[in-house]
Amino acid sequence: MKKAFIVYEKTDALKNMAFIEQLIEAGKNYDLELQLALTNNFSVSELVAHCQNAQFVFYRARNCDYVTSLEQANIPVVNSSHVNALANNKYMTLQFARTLGIPTVPLFTEPEQYEYPLVFKTVDGHGGAEVVLCQDNADLCVCQKQYEDRLTLVQPYIESNATDVRVWVLGNQVIGAVKRQGKEDFRSNLTLGGSIERYELNHLQLDHVHAMQNAIKSDYIGMDFLLLEDGTWLLNEIEDPVGARSFYDLYEENLPDLLMKYLVGRYAYESFIF
What residues does the ATP-grasp domain cover (predicted)? Predict the structure, then answer.
């Protein structure tokens, strides 16, 4: 039986233990021993040594130093350092998407451009955290003070009825999409109390998703788009690692099995075809 590792930060691992255990069990169906490793227990060099001879490392944390060092040791990582770094920097994500012709949420580049209300974000926040709707300059100053040691960005507030679309992409395939709508909050994250329903992408939306995927060549990511009232959308961010609670709620497919079949087929046993 071949071996691979799934890597989490301890706090996130505790929140996702059921998912981790399902992945470990799914791996056994494909003759793969998947082991959990926590970044809290390893320095970068120690994790590289621990993962030697692994078929791949399924990296579910956000410190790109680990990914870069694993790659330098010729250990395949899901996702690559390019994807991990891009997904965890909202500014880089939007700039990159624009070069591909994908419509994105605009960015304010100068204070003279600010119009209230506006949205203030840290570039590396996730899960709807560290995103603030500022009604005036006083609100903005509070945010700037709170996050003065962090990279941040400022965007216009775009009315979308607190609605966005999360798209899950595995390899080159869209495996699911969900429309999320916020409840008493301009953010639409399910974990913040939003509602969800399955969503069918149109041809243009599929083109946008595949344009991003073809450029970054990820293994498993999420893409989040603001869904406007006229049916158009704007890329807001990409997620790595991506959560899947709403996938579990709305789809019958066994996500851990889908993931293991794809990853084992790509990195361990070519006889398994996704």
Answer: 67-264
